[in-house]
Amino acid sequence: MIPFELAEPRSLKGALKLLDTEDPAVRAFGGCTALMLMMKTGVFQPACLVSLRGVEKKHARVARTRGGLTIGALATLSALEQSAAVRKAAPVITRTLRTLSNVRVRNVATLGGHLAHADPHMDLPPVLIALGAELTAVSLAGERRLAVQDLFTGYYETALAKNELISEVHVPAQDGRRSAYVKCTTRTADDWPTLGIAVALKTDGALIEDARVVVSAATEKPLRMAQAEAVLRGATVTDAVLARAGEAAAAEAELIGDARGSAAYKRELLRVYAARAVKQALAGGGH
Amino acid sequence: MANIQGKTNAGQASFSSIGRSIPRVEARAKVTGRAEYVHNLRLPGMLYGKVHRSTLAHGRIRSIDTSAARAMPGVYAVYTAADIMKLVPDPHYGPAFHDQPVLAIDKVRHVGEPVALVLAADIHVAEAAAQSIIVDYEELPAVFDEIEAMTSKAVVHEVLKPAGTFPDLKHLKDKRDTNIALDFRLRRGDAQKAFAEADHVFEHTFRTQQVLHVPLEPFVTVADPQPNRLDIHTASQSPSFVRIEIARLLGWPESRVRVRVPYLGGGFGAKLYIKIEALTAIAALLAGRPVKIALTMEEQFYQITKHAATLRIKSAVTRDGKITARECEVWWNGGAYADIGPRVTQKSGFTAPGPYDIDHVAIDSYALYTNLPAAGALRGFGIPQLVWGYESHTDMIARALNIDPLAFRRKNILKNGRPQATGTIMQDAGIEKVLERLAERMQWEKPFDHGQGSIRRGRGMAIGFKASISPTTSVAIVNISADGSVMVYCGTVDMGQGSDTAMAQFAAEALGVPVETVTVVHPDTDVTPYDMATLGSRSTYHMGHAVKLAAEDARDKLMQLAQEVGLSAETAPIPDIFRKKYGMQAGNVVGVGSYIPTYASPDAQGQTTNATPFWMIGATGAEVEVDTETGEFKITRLVNLVDVGRPVNPAIVETQISGATLMQLGFTLYERMDFDAGQCTNASLADYKIPGIRDVPAVMENEAVDMVQQSGPFGAKGVGESGTFGVSPAIASAIDDAVGVRLTGLPLTAEAVYRGLRANAGKPLED
Questions:
Q1: pLDDT value at position B1?
Q2: Does the pLDDT of residue A281 top 50, yes or no?
Q3: Mean per-residue pLDDT for B400-429?
Q4: Scanning every residue of chain A, which has its alpha carbon at the shortest distance from the alpha carbon of B630?
């Protein structure tokens, strides 16, 4: 690894000042778990890395707000995994974190970095999209709020400007929505998933009033499956409905083949796992 | 204080040190971070070396532009082959062939081959400078596949250059325009006739993929020039070989080269013979400064790998399931440099028909050069590739003939007293015992629940065997100090397998002293005598013998001393003997032991009366659950049985079995080097996935069967590799048993199972 400058600002504002440059070799990091891999392989050679680890502690806070959650972008994945507030408001996040990469990564990786890196294999983006989460992005010019769904614009690409940082993530109250995230890893248990599916269902007895179905890992970015959602919306769940939802997802997703599986195989996985995710959400009780 | 009551008999009923699970002597130092590794070594004035590597699989070097690197502030030197040759006119090395240049000369033969070296006091400067080197190549046609390499027009080496150490390679000297680095042949009986007369003939082809060792400590060497000498500190499994080979390259006597090896963070066969030592040594001599070269995890993918192999196996079988003949053709993809591949080809090749009693056998085993990173020894030395094939074949025959896999094996199993394919009569090989104990633990003869709905269950078994590399030599020195404490000087490298502990146990047992009084001195060729290498599970047997002989020699001398000074050799405490002799706590008694087993070279037909000093046996039983909707499967139970003779240290034996099994599990399920035009596309642990703790099967049982190796030291023999043998075919057979999908290539992936299910259903999945 070629030497680079390491800046450790004490405030978010200080970090934003350092990042207010056109130089693509100046980058911010939270835990640096993902950037480090790119640096080791030479894909990214930084001139200056801006560590966010020394900024105000409030940016790592996890708080319950009106039944939902407000999570500081610098909260580590371990902190979220162990947070009672998260477990109460959105237990699907807690469950997802238990098998996210490994404990060493979770101990240092931050939620903000996890999202901003925009690697489609990350576990939390599809979950947060299914939960209808939003985020606050800040720059020296001010702040704006956008849906997590709208953050991802492509493979490793986001709607964030070069001088913008994620400061908070907002998870709305789920009001009895039932959620699940299932992932399929075809190699080792701690490998990136071959396919991830998150679902959040608003139900009335056996009737699904509303559904969000999000596919990740096999696609260039996490994507809502509109056709599958349409099949589920207003339906009473039967095996036939689940099969149709799976078919719909398999038909509409643009899947990418790689070392973890061919596109054709991932389509079969998606068909099966979409139905399983819905089943698991319904079986899982609240949230 | 102990007196002298050493025991030496293999068949002896009770021991004081052998057979005890003594905690590893280095355990505390390792968990407290105090164990010595070369990675931690920094010497005054030391320079770091960084390698510029080939980006082409096969190409002629037109020019190397090092001007930018040389101009970079902080760069001490930049070397290419031209510089190396100023010191060493013919800088080719290797254990079987002198085919590997210290830095590429005129052409490159694989992506990642070292072309130039930069030295700098700052490792980052060295790295930046190495990246700035520009090499102009003329691209040459390349060959990657081992079968294509047999007849390919692309030739990796213009001329073959056998090292001269192995008699069966001599006929290849100066051969041109071939990629065949060894054509081993074995013929026993008349296979052709038996096939002609057979009731059934079965033929299958199996493939394994290229994988690698990934020791968590990558290759590292420090070379430190001394007045008229050279010190080399290296993470090597074969310090004696490094010394001999460096001395040969430099034209120096061995005594001017010192090779030191502290602990290794894993070896698995990667760190054998000579790897980055020659480059580091020559760079240090050219620079006149200590030089350290430490490869990154990513660079390990270009250093040494495990052979991808293709095995074609054909059997003649009678109506009632007796195998009468077997024909095996094995093609070993050796990559660009032979390393020890030709020995894999022969030493493992002769076991290709498996542990079965077959009268008519024909084996052809080929070591092939290709334009991929070199392949060498990896935990099993080719055996796992062969067992994968012959045990899959065994189950496919059993299934076709509708014979139970256990019954089929029982009918054909190779028993002690019967000749193996080489003609060598089997002795002390627990093949039958391991098979029977596996059947018992698996409750094979009881009904098995095959599951229902979309979850189907299956089970499989596999058994393999291996000969020891022979003949090889180990020498040890045992030194008894005047207080009765003991030093063992031996060249065996403790790379995590617990050899320091085992050698202390051997010495303690032979001397009749407590194991705590024994210290094992790490390899340092200035101090420790010759040892062939720490490889092929040979140390327990060979170095165990040498240490035992040295201890016995010391004990005899001590008894003589006791007699001389008028004390009872049986009852006098050791310090009393020294005190009486020297008037104070003074003096030493030094014993020497040298061991080489008997051996008979094979004839032109591969026949010999004595192929190996001992046999290693390993078997695995697997139970799996397959999800028929996705092809995903999980291993619910893995039972591993081995014959290690008498276990020297049962706790360490168990971790050797489980460690070997889990390593092979990675090669079975996950690991595969992916290539694009010879470029490895997943050369990092982020993309090349090795098993972690969450991949360990829910139930894993490991057992060493009750056996004694009569010729072994205290009845013991090697243990490091046997756990690998049966893993891959047992799992493949369990999948077949569950869902009727037979996979013939590794790794076994969920997608391959799913595709098999779809093919069986007549609805194949598109590519």
A1: 42
A2: yes
A3: 98
A4: A269
- Which region among A4-18, B160-174, B606-620, B675-689 has the lowest average model confidence (pLDDT)? B160-174
pLDDT in tens, A242-259: 999 999 999 999 999 999
- Residue B473: is it exposed, middle or buried by C-beta count within 10 angstroms (0-12/13-18/19+)? middle
Q: Which residues in chain B have Cβ-Cβ distances shorter than 8 Å to A191?
A: 670, 689
CATH number for A9: 3.30.43
Query: Does A152 lie in the same domain as A61?
Result: yes
Residues of B that are catalytic: 721
| Residue B762, φ and ψ in degrees, nearest 5 | 75, 15
Q: In this structure, are A73 and A142 located in the same domain?
A: yes
User: Considering chain B, what is the average pLDDT of its residues?
Assistant: 96
Distance from the A283 Cα atom to the nearest Cα atom in chain B, whole angstroms:
19
Q: Domain containing A253: what range?
A: 178-283
Quick one: A149 and A118 in the same domain?
yes
Question: A40 vs B298: CB contact, 8 Å cut-off?
Answer: yes
pTM (two decimals): 0.96
pLDDT, one tens digit per residue, over A63-78 is: 999 899 999 999 999 9
- Same domain, residue pair A204 and A117: no
Domains and CATH numbers, chain B: 27-35+472-595 (3.30.365.10), 39-142+215-296 (3.90.1170.50), 305-469+604-760 (3.30.365.10)
Q: Work out the number of other CB atoms within 10 angstroms of the CB of residue B603.
A: 12
Query: Which of B687, B692, B754 is facing A265, going by the closest CB pair?
Result: B754
Residue B164's identity, in one-letter code, is G
Residues of chain B above pLDDT 70, percent: 98
Look-up: residue for tokens 């507030």?
A85
Q: Mind giving me the DSSP string for A110-151?
A: BHHHHHHT--TT-SHHHHHHHTT-EEEEEETTEEEEEEHHHH
Q: Test A1 with B124 for CB contact under 8 angstroms.
A: yes
Residues A42 and A19 reside in one and the same domain: yes
Query: What confidence score (pLDDT) does residue B7 get?
Result: 54
Domain count, chain A: 3
Most B CBs within 10 Å: which of A99, A184, A188, A262, as the mutation test of the B interface?
Answer: A188
Residues of chain B contacting A184 with CB distance shorter than 8 Å: 630, 632
Residue A286 has pLDDT above 90, yes or no: no
- What DSSP character marks residue A51? E
Amino acid identity for residue A74 in this structure: L
* Interface probe with B: pick from A41, A255, A265, A268, most Cβ of B within 10 Å: A265
Are the beta carbons of A102 and B682 separated by less than 8 Å?
no
Q: Do A189 and B692 touch (CB under 8 A)?
A: yes
pLDDT tens for B290-308 read 999 999 999 999 999 999 9
Same domain for A124 and A199, yes or no, is no
| Peptide bond just before B471 cis, omega within 30 deg | yes
What is the predicted ipTM?
0.95
Domain boundary among A136, A171, A206: A171
The candidate with the shortest Cα–Cα distance to B593, out of B482, B715, B479, is: B479
